[in-house]
Amino acid sequence: MIAGTGEMVAQLNERARTDLIEAGRVEADGLRLHDGTTAGVGDLVVTRLNDRRLSTGRAWVKNGDRWHVTRRYDDGSLAVRRLGRGDQPHGKALVLPAKYVREELELGYASTVHRAQGASVDTAHALVDPETSSRELFYVAMTRGKRRNRAYVIVPDPYEIEAHLDQPEPLTVTGRLAKVLARTDADLSATETLKLEVDRHASLSTLLAEYDLLAREAQIDRWAALLDVAPFPENVADDVFTSPYYERLEAALARHHEAAGHLAAAALTALAPRLTPGEDQADPAVQLANMLDQATQQLPPGKRTRARVAGLIPTPAEPIAEDMQTALTERQMLIEAAARGLLHDAQEAGAAWVVRLGQPSSRLEARERWEAHAATIALYRYLHKITTLTPLGDAKAIRRVKQATEHLRAQAAFTRALRLGSRQTESAPPVKFATEHMRRL
User: I want to staple 54 with a disulfide (CB 3.0 to 4.6 A). Which of 61, 203, 274, 343 is the partner?
Assistant: First the structure.
């Protein structure tokens, strides 16, 4: 669990410990720690001070190490074992002195965002305060989990607000998250951000993650409404909504099927009845996501295509709340500026893939169009880590539907850039090839 302040972390740690006591996994008694919490046998704890004198042989106690308490002594010391993979204790036991326990030990169920930087867990649960959290801290909190990241947004309790005071602005959870994403710890304008050259790739990675998160949040209610009326077989709908793979299903609907120009409602009407319930069957959300991916691959691109960020990343369908649209537009501008920056870097380095696009025209309008298409290719290469001399890499190596759909867009950009180039050094492979390859995935 992750929170923004030490006070919140202490409260989360205390609640987690209470639940574990009730489950019989942790002893009720324990030793008092500096933040007011208690640690006893069975607890997970974290050390907060490097101390080479406390050693298990090869390893010594370091700030941020997590441990399992195995014994409590009358003098206030604790015997602990270091946690390894899967939070399982391993290695020799170590005794932490009473003074260290009292001053430098904390429960290890929750952490502040700052301390969580660099950490990697299976599942992360982030407590978000819309009045204080920034987008930088939110990004860190929501990228710690390898399998899943969940945010719990604090909302004011209407019963604790005094009647004579101004009532808080009514906001949805999405609106509160938009406030967080609109707040930055760095006092920079959009213009200043665009001029920053340092750490450009890391900044682009952050922007892409933020845009993806915002786009998903903007469509949550829409997908829920469509799935709510989908003709699922009996007793399947609840399993879809509670599935751990629900986000994968949303991605199949939004970024694959609808982004290819097809109607999600029509696909759900046709595919939902085909789900096969039963304990021996695959998760229903996975079944439906796979069906949607297959349908996307088999159907030709539809006519209901939407605008794309840098010609590559699909934008969410409207209507979208005004504050959410503002946040999306801001990031779209920054992503597109960063994509142009990638192109300019490649041009200055004389990259072979840029040379193969031909030289941009001397006419301003044609040159701007050429740069827009070339920037699409630069972003595609960045997203899929393509380092080959050919602009789009090896199409036969594509294994994921997401890359296959983006490859079609990059392929179209490649063809248009060649047509605008003043000298064509390589003829564009036909778009038909990319479409046929996508169907083979």
Answer: 61
